[in-house]
Structures are given as C-alpha cells and as structure tokens.
Amino acid sequence: MSAVRHWVVDIEIDEQDEERVTRAEARLRTHREEQFSARGTAYRHPQDREVPQIGDELATARALSELSHQLVVLAAENIEQVTHRPSHLQG
Questions:
Q1: DSSP bridge partners of 25
Q2: pTM exceeds 0.90, yes or no
Q3: Of 41, 51, 56, 84, which shows the fewest CB atoms inside 10 Å?
C-alpha cells in the first residue's frame, strides 16, 4: 500500500545586527497535526565580514539538526512502546 503524507516545516530567521547574532526557529507540523519546534543560533565574530546568508544558513542548520534529534528520540520511544524492548537508534 502506498500512502503520501505531507509534513510542513516553517523556518523563521531573526538577525540582531548590534549583537552579531542570527537566530532561527524551525517548526514542524505533521500530517497528524503534531507540532515540534527547535532553535538554532549563529554568532558572527566582530572581525568577520557581514554576510547575512551565512548566519541564516548556520542558524537554520542548527535548528533543523535539533529538530532532527527530537524526531529520532521520538521514533526510539515509539519503537520501545511497540516492541517493549530498548531501541538502538543513532542519529
């Protein structure tokens, strides 16, 4: 049986020039309307050139990495509930 599910990830990026900080928040909504969110931060060294795209990319990557980790932990918990045995997921 083939099934298509649609999950939506929304990413909001906020840059604070005076702090040289870029923050990203990734929000995931699943087809079951479950919601997850994670944050990532990028810091620009005072001597680095200002290239906003780099901060956006780093902060977003870090937020998505955290979101990914949350999903791996959730999957491990769900496996343990179904199998009644410890899971051995890595990620």
A1: 12, 39
A2: no
A3: 84
Q: How many whole angstroms separate alpha carbon 66 and alpha carbon 22?
A: 16
pLDDT tens, position by position, 26-56? 999 999 989 999 999 999 999 999 899 999 9
Q: Give the C-alpha separation, 61 to 69, whole Å.
A: 12
User: 10: which strand partners?
Assistant: 27
Q: What distances in angstroms separate CA 55 from CA 29, 45, 52, 67, one per listed residue? A: 25, 11, 5, 18
- 6-24 pLDDT, tens digit per residue, is 999 999 999 987 889 999 9
Radius of gyration of the chain (CA): 17
Collapsing DSSP to helix, strand or coil, 70 comes out as helix
Q: CB atoms < 10 A from the CB of 31, how many?
A: 11
